[in-house]
Amino acid sequence: MTTQNSTHSFVSWNVNGLRACRKKTFDKFVEQVSPDFLCLQEVKLNPDAIPEEDFGYAFTQFHLAEKNGYSGTAIFSKQEPLSVALDFPDGSHVSEGRMITCEYDGFYLVNVYVPNSKGDLSRLPHRYDSWDPDLKDYLIDLRTKKPVVLCGDLNVAHREIDLANPKTNRRNAGFTDEEREGISNLLAEGFLDSFRHLHPEETGAYSWWSYRAGARARNVGWRIDYFVTSDDLATSIREATIHPEWEGSDHCPVGLVLANG
């Protein structure tokens, strides 16, 4: 993902444990791709295990869960942000390290790891009644100040085209009507799915695969990792990419390139 000064490059990656991913491909990925903004989910770190390396970035922010080795997010940036905020302004949804917001001159960057509804859907009411509406309202408020770039593992495949087997996953976590409604409600408020903006009908484009039954080798996957932007950035989107060639996690990196200014 080569960019010039006229663009900003972004990557989002659910690394499913940063230490484990570093033993595989993470360091090589950062060296080769070196995006301007790198957002991670599920870093699964304890406070004493945060890497000492800055990977060449001027700014690093980790937001860890209170429960050791659980969840957690991080942002690496080649420029210092104007401000940094963790979680929601009202103090809700704390303790799991799920959201970091960095403000820059031209936009807000929001890195999020949305709660999984779980196999028994026990966390679906939390998603539907609380988390998704709160995230939507937060992003709408940010957009009144400047454009917004949201990225991360949203734990939902929005449309049937976004997973290999939509019919057999109809009521499974990540493809329930409620979860899909959550992202539809956000997009209806003036936000867009950058990948579908540039690739509206591309099939077989997935960012997560089960470890079972050779799913990745057969590309039986789901697209649940996103860059969602406020629609005032629509004409600035130059690339929206998925990089299944980079292994090291059950998710692969996804990318965005925006024109600068």
Structural commentary:
The chain is α+β, with helices and mostly antiparallel strands. It is 19% helix and 26% strand. It is globular, with a radius of gyration of 17 Å.
The global form is globular
Structural class: alpha+beta
Which CATH class?
Alpha Beta
CATH topology: Deoxyribonuclease I, Chain A
Q: Major sheet, described briefly?
A: 6 strands, mixed
In the CATH hierarchy, what is the superfamily? Endonuclease/exonuclease/phosphatase
| SSE order | EHHEEEEEEHEHEHEEEEE
Distance between the termini: 19 Å
Number of strands: 14
Bin the strand percentage: 25-35%
Supply the number of helical segments: 5
**Spatial extent as radius of gyration:** 17 Å
Q: Under the CATH scheme, which architecture would be assigned?
A: 4-Layer Sandwich
- Share of helix, binned: 10-25%
Strand order of the largest sheet: 3-4-2-1-14-13
Number of domains: 1
Mean of pLDDT: 96
In the predicted model, the low-confidence regions spanning at least 5 consecutive residues are none
